[in-house]
Amino acid sequence: MPINQPSNQIKLTNVSVVRLKKGGKRFEIACYKNKVMEWRNGVETDLDEVLQIKNVFSNVSKGQVAAQGDLQKAFKNEDMSKIIEEILKKGELQVSEKERSHQIDNTYREIAMIVAEKCVNPQTKRPYTVTMIEKALGEIHLSVNVNKSTKSQALEAIKQLQEKKVIPISRAQMRLRITMPNSKETKKVKEKLTPLIANIEDENWDNEYELICLIDPGQYRTIGDILEKNIKGNGQIELLSLNDTSEGDIKF
Question: Alpha-carbon distance 219 to 176, whole Å?
């Protein structure tokens, strides 16, 4: 006579486990492979597409479902979806050594690609290849986090490369033409823009104020917000070029 599986046990296969320790207990959820990072990055928003089963476990590999009392005590909540979302957001994704190594390699490569896209050699005014950036990142012993945004890690990597002077590197600059009506407000707006501008190349105070300048890419949105707020749609920003690189080389 076959032995019945206990009612609090559910067997799952080919699963990615997210684990969160809370209130002295271990809680796990069973997810489809690759879907956890898609949910964390905002690519996937449907929990049903992420979870293999909408339940919380104390041990996924053994199929042990978490006790209701433990869940209520730890999360102070009876809403299973909110509990699962907290585990999904704050928990640690459990992966094999082979998977983790693959994820680290991919993350490292993505960071190097972003740095290569956003930066130039200030001496030659030319972009670096991804391979050259990877080598430089190796020299500063960059530590990558597979659960963190590659963009934020790339920005941190640029800072480290600049501080440790492994290679001459700087952010590629955007050349802009900013135009707005020449009124009594124009000088006030320019005063707000000046701290955000790396270099003013040309300026014209005729009927229409025209400014041609270089900025670091990170300031573009702030400049746009200032014009929108102060000029009320009468100003214009035109991207003329990305300094010393072709527009196809760098994307923002």
Answer: 11
Residue carrying structure tokens 């020449």: 182
What's the Cα-to-Cα distance from 30 to each of 16, 33, 55, 201, rounded to whole Å?
Answer: 6, 9, 8, 57
Task: Determine contact, residues 173/197, Cβ cutoff 8 Å.
Answer: no
The pLDDT tens digits of the residues spanning 160-212 come to 999 999 999 988 888 899 998 888 888 889 999 999 998 899 999 888 899 99
Q: How far apart are CA 29 and CA 42, in angstroms?
A: 19
**182 SS3 class:** coil
* Amino acid code (one letter) for 68: Q
Q: What is the pTM of this model?
A: 0.51
d(CA 20, CA 103): 20
Residue 56: exposed, middle, or buried by beta-carbon count in 10 A (0-12, 13-18, 19+)? Answer: buried
